Amino acid sequence: MTKPLPRSTASHHPVVATPTRRPSPAARLARFTRGGLVQAVLLLCAALWLTPTFGLLVTSLRPKEDSSASGWWTVLNSPARLTLDNYTALLSGGSEVIGAFWNTVLISVPATLLTVALAALAGYAFAWLDFPGRDWLFLTVVGLLVVPVQIGLIPVAKLLGAIGLFGTVPGVVLFHVAYGLPFAVFLLRNQFLEIPQEILEAARIDGCSEWTAFRRLALPLAAPALASLAIFQFLWVWNDMLVALVFAGNDSQPLTVLLQSQMRQFGSNLDVLASGAFLSLLVPVIVFFSFQRYFVQGAMAGSVK
Fold this sequence. Notes:
By secondary structure, this protein is mainly alpha-helical. It folds into 2 domains: 30-83, no CATH class; 90-300, MetI-like fold, CATH 1.10.3720.10. 67% of the residues lie in helices and 0% in strands. The protein has 15 helices and no strands.
């Protein structure tokens, strides 16, 4: 005679089916954008966006008579016509473009380095030093962010003319530094505030001065933000034309002002315009990709605790 199977001592609870949650419109849109069709459309948009740059490159490599006779897309029929003669003539010793190029370097590099250095010192002081009127002075710096560049053109031009710097490279550099400092100080002050206070206190207990703590601790920890600021400032100064058009003289005009003046004779000097414009475009691209890793780190700084 078979024994009945023992009953399970575990209590049986009814299984309640959880209702499936319908994805939100944003979730469905995000899932749709991961599809291959959307990526193909984005690649097409990127190709269309880069078409003028590619056309500028091709035009800079074509002889002047070809550029005047037909469009740059006709190079597909005769790619052997491409040459580097335009760049050879552009970079020759007697070319105006090479002088304007060096003026752009002499303006952009000091304006970037001075802005980053002064902003780092001021940002650290606003973040960790206690002095009378610190908060009011910082509010003044923040208020200067809303002042347009156009408002200061005439007053600063009179001031630089009074001290003999109008129409010179140092005058253009000083203007860029002055108008780049408010944003730079605001950015670096917030970055320095993210440094844990315990690190600086431990350094002070060990006998470090404020200068040593700033140089040995604050600057290395804020290196991504410093690199990001340097990229922003360099690109702004390098591509600027308004400030240089007002404050630079004939001997100190940068590449943007020279190219703008050459536009009056567009058809006769298209070879100079194309090669000079592409040279002016190439340098910021090289700088950006050289510091891209630091730029991404600086953009993500403070987003994750």
